[in-house]
Here is the input.
Amino acid sequence: MAELEEEVDVLVQRVVKDINNAFKRNPHIDEIGVIPCPEARYNRSPIVLVENKLGVESWCVKFLLPYVHNKLLLYRQRKHWLDREALVDITCTLLLLNPDFTTAWNVRKELVQCGVLHPEKDLYLGMLALTKFPKSPETWIHRRWVLQQMLHQFFAVGESRKQQQQQQQQNGEAAQADGERSHQLSDHLARTLHQEMKVCSDAACRYPSNYNAWSHRIWVLQHMAKGNVKVFHDELSSMRLWVSMHVSDHSGFHYRQFLLNELITALSHAAAPAITAVTCPSQFCSGPVPGTAGPHSLSHAHANGELSGADAAAEDERQHSCTTVLQLFHQEMELCSDLIQSFPGHETLWSHRRHVFYLWHQWRREQQPHGSSNGGSRPIHHNDSDPGRPEVGDGSRAGRTESVNGQNHTGEPMDVDGASSSDPHDSKRLKRGAPLPSATLPSEHGFVGGVLRGCCDPEQRRFALAYKKWLDTVIAQQP
Here is the structure.
């Protein structure tokens, strides 16, 4: 019996070494897996490396996993000594087979803090573990810890360099070298963010409704791209195709709702009226903001050159932000309409539409001042031909025809108002050929009515009626 245990130990030690050698031979391994093989048929290593894929024959897992598990527990109990290199190899093997073993991740945390392991090594190991176990909660938790360490290092380096610049006067060459190092750190952070987005996307594709992956993705954006509107907007655009291919994945749509909320919040802050007399465009507000000039007087002052350059720029920026918000809502409602009609009977799509419309309803109420009237401003126009899906005339779709749900919609071109003017602020103001669309309670009732008239799926009918009931009991009751 003792001889058999010794043979197993020798075998397992060889397998652990083979795994370590595989990573040395090919540092670009991007996927792991277990090869079904009930017993050893050949006198060869059970570790198979083909291109960038690493496989472990299943017959050796029942020997390998208990061995590395017991080794690590004995080390934690201080009954068995392991050097740092052995700890790295054993924890790597263990986590590739069982990534939810918290003790192994804790050991690697200590190794990272001691400087034995580079944080990127653990990000790479976690990425490999997620190819086999895409929902592993402990792996996602450890990734967030590693990213926090990297962020702390990044900000610590930035603070150190800032203090050095304040303490001593540097020549031009030193300042240029410092700027290059800061640029390199920023590029490294951007590459890490891009890599995390890819890891999350791959895990979400491997496991449906992968809540852990989507929650991690939200955390990454909140901590590594906070306030970066471009990153959030790019994410929203890139996710359009993904949700169209996974119409039942509520976690993916929840992530899209998070992106939309963040963008609306950031753009609304940019469009908030300041002390100067600035209001939103008449398409968004039912009247002027109390204590400010009305839109007509503001436009008149702008045309007569009465506004200062800073005020005119602020007005243009706020109007652009309001227009962008309206475009985001229209595009999201349009996406919901397309998916609901193309893939009937999916509750996730109706839930997402409910969230988007409620967000739009709340945003529009916030833009309207309390107790104000129309004040001579123009009302919001809707497409009478299709109340649920009005046409859009923004610049991104100008001059081209799109087919949406079998209907052709032609975008209206936008004319530059005062293109020949020498004022740079006037050149930024756009005059739309048609008012930008928005969703209202009647337009939503029209959309639901159209779905019910052409509905053949009982589930689709049930979800449509539930949405109509929500509109009547929640939205219609609000002032």
About this structure: The two ends are 81 Å apart (CA to CA). Residues 274-303, 370-434 have pLDDT under 50 and may be disordered. The first helix runs from residue 2 to 25. Residues 155 and 247 are 40 Å apart (CA to CA).
